[in-house]
Amino acid sequence: MTSYELMRQLREHLGDKVIECWEPRDGRVFVKVAPSDIVSTCDYVFNTLGARYMTTCATDDRWRTGKFTVTHFFSLDLDKLFLSVRAEVDPDNPIIPSITPLIPGAEWAEREQQDLLGVKFEGHPDPRRLVLPDDFPPELHPLRKDYPYDYRPEPDTRGKVPMKEPPEGATVVAVGPFFPVLEEPAYFRLFVDGEVVVGCDYRGFYNHRGIEKLGDSKLTFNQVVFLAERI
Q: In this predicted model, what pLDDT tens digit does every residue of 174-231 receive, in sequence order?
């Protein structure tokens, strides 16, 4: 399938849902839909076209369009095509349906955008904080353009992440946050019934230092590469 054929199929299947469909460069296709159509569009891309889900990204485009933008990235590996499904979100009510019930692999990516950009994914099965520390104020989102790169807020425990309770009859085996075989701090709660692990919970990102914000606002391209290679 070529990029032209992909765009034709998107327009034929989605019809009026397609606000815009374009190819900014060879092999890279974008389709823009309304937030209310994002799940059905991703369903078609994932289940009918057989595209592989890659990740989700939210961007603060208020300076340009007055909106936040949410983009789900897919790859059609055999055709060597990349497809980005995009929707704009009202910054006064930044809510968009979650695709995690449809594509479980989107869970962490959506939670990350919720933390850093403040876009809420309605219907997400586990919308708890993922990246930001427990004492970071819930109403602040550091990758928004109006958040100063050098601002350090006062600690606020309202954002503390509640851990999951174990199933009835299960025992909790805690691993971490510091453990000899872990490359960086992470806290695992294993729910064990006898010798069988029946569930788990996780809290990580203890080494997250906001490098993305520096790269987005303060550092030059060469400085970003230099710093990223040292992590």
A: 988 887 877 888 999 999 999 999 999 999 988 777 788 888 888 898 898 888 887 6
Listed residue (87, 83, 48) closest to 71, CA to CA:
87
Query: How many domains does the structure of the chain reveal?
Result: 2
Q: Are 174 and 149 in the same domain?
A: no
What tokens does 130 get?
């993922």
pLDDT digits (tens, 9 = 90+) for 73-131: 999 999 999 999 999 999 999 999 999 999 999 999 999 999 999 999 999 999 999 99
Residue 96 lies in domain:
3-162
Q: Are residues 43 and 7 in the same domain?
A: yes
Q: Going by C-beta distance under 8 Å and a sequence separation of 6 or more, which residues neighbour residue 47?
A: none
Amino acid at the residue 75 = S
| Domain CATH number, residue 27 | 3.30.460.80
